[in-house]
Structure formats: structure tokens, C-alpha cells
Amino acid sequence: MAHTDEYDEAMLAAMDLIWGEGFMAPGGEGHVDKLVAGLSLAGRRVLDIGCGQGAPACYLAARHGARVTGTDLEGHLVERARGRAQRLQLDDRVRFLQVAPGPLDFDDASFDVVLSTGAFTQIEDKLAMFRECRRVLRPGGFLRAYDWMKTDGAYSEAMCEWLALEGLTYAMVTAGEQAAMLAEAGFSDPLVTDASPWYRRQVRREYEDLAGPLRPRLVALLGETQAAHFVDNWRAACRVCESGELRQVYTTAHCGAR
Fold first, then answer.
1. Residue 150: strand pairing partners
2. Would you give the DSSP letter of residue 212?
């Protein structure tokens, strides 16, 4: 199935402004550290699924000594990521590939760790992807992910409003559903940890910054109409985060012996 690019220049500019240059999820470098907490990555082979603009992968190489392969569906994001690696002189430790939706084009047991920030949120057939992640992991390897998830039941009116403002393809599940799929895919001890209280506070600060001191910079970058759209987007995100309907979840799972 062909992929249609969804991350336009306006959205990337807004993300850079609020989350830090090259990051496409909240938390910046601290988020990356949390994602890999407890793992020794020096010299390890890491697959970053949904690498985006490449800031997390480059940070993993520079700070943690990992050897990272980043993949993404959108070619313009991959080009940005490659440019970042070149500027940071990390070409020997990081590579970025544009891929198509579907099975991973890597051999069995190719990686020590598989990471993803937000990509699983957007994948419809998560079970198939988790099976692929397990296939490319060596025995003893780890899957680590951060995703936006939902609560049980149908979306509320507020959630539908936020999804419309986002304009992205989401296929959210509950934390329990994700853990069950990881177990079905063959992972040992899948654990999902709800980080929603942290982001509930963070998203309110982000919205207040975008609506207040950052608004002139947002207008300068995007123009008044687009700036107003992103302020409204973050307002709607506050609503569904503070109601508890939109959840932020870290996942860890272990790949035992085959």
C-alpha cells in the first residue's frame, strides 16, 4: 500500500519550536534517555522505526555510543535526518533509510534493540509489526517504544476534534491491548507504563507558550492562519490529555530465546 506524506513544513516548524529542533515527540533528549533507561547501548545495533528528522537517532549515537539504523516512510524526513548526521559528523554511526509500509527489510536477529517513538501509534496492523520487530531482534534483545494511546470505548467529541486538527493517521489502542499483542508476537514480559501525568502538565505549558510568548515566533514562521491552527491544535490536545482520554505510554518488552 502506498504511503502519502503527512508531515508538512508547517507541522515540522511547529514541532521544532515546541519540542526542540529535529524532535517529533515531547521531551527532547530527556525523553530519549527515558526510552533507553537501563540499557547499555555502546556499540549495540539499534533500529529506530519512524526516525523522523533524526534527532533521537543522532543523540543515541553521540550520547550512548549506539550504532543506529533509522527508517521512515517519508523521504523528506529521511533527507533531513541524513543532513543532521552529516552536520554532526555521525555518518559512521548512523544511517537513515526510506522504507515502504509492511515487513521490515532486515535479516533475522539483525539488531540488539528496536526503538520507536510514535510510529506504532500510526500503524494499523500492530501485531504484524511487533512480530517483525521480534524477528529482527537477536535473542536477549529489547523493544522500547513510546506511543499515544486511548482509553476503552468510542472516541469522544473532544477527541474527534483533536484528531481532525492533527490531520494525521492514528490507529490508537489501549495499553492493555498493546501488551497483549506484544505477548502474542512472542515477546517476554511486556510492560506498559503510563506517563500521562507528566505530559498532562507538559502539554498545558506547551499550549500556554504557543498561545503566549512563542506566538510571535510561530506567526513569523508560519503566518497568522497557520499559527492560529497550531494554537488551536494544542488547546484541543490539552482537553483530551487533561480528561485522561489521550494517554502517553512507554512500552518495554524482552526477546527471549527462540
1. 246
2. T
What pTM did the predictor assign? 0.94
- Which grid cell sits at 155? 472516541
3-state secondary structure of 26: coil
pLDDT in tens, 23-61: 999 999 999 999 999 999 999 999 999 999 999 999 999
- Taken in order 146, 149, 151, 152, the sign of the CA dihedral is negative
Eight-state DSSP code of residue 120: G
Please give the DSSP secondary-structure letter assigned to residue 140: E
R_g of the chain, CA atoms, integer Å: 18
Tell me the three cell numbers of residue 217: 515566533
- Sequential DSSP letters for 153-210: SSPPHHHHHHHHHH--------HHHHHHHHHHTT-EEEEEEE-HHHHHHHHHHHHHHH
228 phi-psi bin (left φ>0, alpha ψ -120 to 50, beta other): alpha
- The helix/strand/coil state of 193 is strand
Domains identified in the chain and CATH numbers? 9-254 (3.40.50.150)
- Pairing mode, if any, of strands 45-49 and 111-117? parallel
